[in-house]
Amino acid sequence: YPMVQCADNDYYLKHAFDGRPLAVGSIFIDCRNNKKVEKNRNIVIYGHNMLNGSMFCDATKFLEEDFFMNTENDIEITTFDGHYTFRVFSAYPTNMYDNYFKTYFPENEDFLKFCEEREAMSLYHREGITFSPDDVIITLSTCILGNDDGRYAVHAKLIKVES
To answer: Residue 65 in 3-state DSSP?
Structure first.
């Protein structure tokens, strides 16, 4: 899927990546994130959880232990700057009031605390995941069907960059 970004986090909820009105919207990156992957701490990516299996429906598979633990399910993102591979370290149900989509961390300790707290919230835990101030993570955010305030959050750490 193409990912898009604009000046607010509302536009692509109801528009296609090419700007056409579209009730189901697009997959989009939080407006607070930098376009350069490495210039972010937490890149937040939003997408609808579609019943037909499209968009972020597959993100909910990380709530199953076998899928979560399988490193073949690493998340790959390609931008104009390179190909990035992220390994999931946390997946859990939450709600729209939880600040799981935080993008600004004034101190390195704030970022590390965020990562550790999110890892602790996960339904499953992967061995050997550690965090450093130089890490980049992504957060996938999608809705819980039938629960207006409910969300699923999936967090993954950047593990490989290719040009």
So the answer is: helix
SS3 at position 112: helix
Q: Are 154 and 140 in contact (CB under 8 A)?
A: yes
* Residue pLDDT, tens place only, 15-31: 999 999 999 999 999 99
The CA distance from 94 to 153, in Å, is: 7
Beta bridge partners of 102: none
Q: Which residues contact 76 (CB under 8 A, 6 or more apart)?
A: 83, 84, 85, 86
Closest to 136 measured CA to CA, from 38, 2, 25 = 38
Start-to-end Cα distance in the chain = 20
